[in-house]
């Protein structure tokens, strides 16, 4: 009988009830009764196991584990047949033995519950090292930027200080360069008196002109309608800066001199604004008929040179049609087409 068979005989038989336990009834007979079996989950504490264990229980558990490991080692020991076989086994590798040892050791170690980690959340050692290196580089770059910003601020402060110092120096130099030794206070005082008298004279003249205009307006308002008409006919209209009326050439551009600042006589406003300029010096009457228009060849060109020789009547319109309705309208209601020359009177509204 081998050692393995001897060891198996010593062990107690495995009682697997598979959800049933033996129960002795009142008569003393044994019967199998079904029980609820809970599945064991790796890494989870069973419901019947206590939350904490004492030192004695831990020592008993450690002793049981060591005893079970020793039992497995005893079973895994090979049978000694001869010295030659022992020598031959020393240099060979038996995967069965290794598997038995590893299985027993794995049973003794606590198992952790596996947790699924998504692919994007998985971080390898290389990625972690790369991230640490990148963080260090960012810190170095941030320190460098802070240092550059500090230097730039110091440079700006230094430039502002230099600029202020230079401005103060120029101001002091300008004040020192003033020559007040050769001034004559009497002459300066006499010049100030002349300027002040001229200012007073201008103010008095402007005030007199304003009062005169107010008196003239008040007098004109007090006149009757006939007196106003007679005075306007006799006095006539006063035109300031009246310019000579020139003669315009064919297709010459017209420039208006403006209506502002014409209340006072000025020589510059009396110039001849009708004189030709640029291309207006050329005689445009010799051009072909189609070119005798303003802005020829451009989008803003005019359609007709003159409207005197052009008939712009639209004979296709409803007004040009000879009908009874149009004839009645022109004879009774249309303005400017009837032979009536009486002065219009105010008609009384019907109430």
From TrEMBL:
Component of the spliceosome B complex. Interacts with PRPF38A (via N-terminal interaction domain). The keyword Coiled coil applies. Residues 53-64 have a biased composition (Acidic residues). It comes from Dissostichus eleginoides. This is Microfibrillar-associated protein 1. Residues 1-113 are annotated as: Disordered. Belongs to the MFAP1 family. Pfam families: MFAP1. Involved in pre-mRNA splicing as a component of the spliceosome. InterPro entries: MFAP1 (IPR033194), MFAP1_C (IPR009730). The keyword Coiled coil applies. Residues 104-312 form the Micro-fibrillar-associated protein 1 C-terminal domain. Keywords: Coiled coil. Residues 116-178 form a coiled coil. Residues 1-10, 24-35, 91-103 have a biased composition (Basic and acidic residues).
């Amino acid at each position: 009988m081998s050692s393995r068979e001897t060891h198996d005989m010593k062990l107690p038989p495995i009682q697997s009830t598979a959800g049933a336990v033996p129960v002795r009834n009142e008569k003393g007979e044994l019967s199998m009764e079904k029980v609820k079996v809970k599945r064991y989950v790796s890494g989870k504490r069973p419901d019947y196991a206590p939350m904490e264990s004492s030192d004695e229980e831990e020592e008993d558990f450690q002793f049981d584990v060591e005893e079970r490991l020793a039992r497995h080692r005893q079973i895994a020991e090979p049978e000694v047949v001869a010295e030659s076989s022992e020598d031959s086994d020393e240099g060979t590798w038996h995967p069965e033995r290794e598997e038995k040892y590893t299985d027993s050791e794995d049973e003794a170690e606590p198992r952790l519950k596996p947790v699924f980690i998504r692919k994007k959340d998985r971080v390898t050692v290389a990625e972690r090292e790369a991230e640490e290196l990148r963080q260090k580089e960012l810190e170095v770059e941030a320190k460098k930027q802070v240092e550059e910003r500090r230097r730039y601020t110091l440079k700006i402060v230094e430039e502002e200080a230099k600029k202020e110092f230079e401005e103060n120096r120029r101001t002091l130099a300008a004040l020192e360069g003033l020559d007040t030794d050769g001034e004559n206070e009497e002459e300066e005082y006499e010049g100030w008196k002349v300027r002040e008298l001229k200012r007073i004279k201008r103010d008095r003249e402007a005030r007199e002109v304003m009062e005169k205009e107010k008196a003239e307006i008040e007098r004109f308002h007090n006149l009757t309608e006939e007196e106003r008409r007679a005075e306007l006919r006799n006095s006539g209209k006063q035109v300031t800066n009246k310019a000579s009326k020139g003669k315009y050439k064919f297709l010459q551009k017209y420039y208006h001199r403006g209506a502002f600042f014409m209340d006072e006589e000025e020589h510059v406003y009396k110039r001849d604004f009708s004189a030709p300029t640029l291309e207006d010096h050329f005689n445009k009457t010799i051009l072909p008929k189609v070119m005798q228009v303003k802005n020829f060849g451009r989008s803003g060109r005019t359609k007709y040179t003159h409207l005197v020789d052009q008939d712009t009547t639209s004979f296709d319109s409803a007004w040009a049609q000879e009908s009874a309705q149009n004839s009645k309208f022109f004879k009774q209601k249309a303005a400017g087409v009837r032979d009536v020359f009486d002065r219009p009177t105010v008609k009384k509204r019907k109430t």
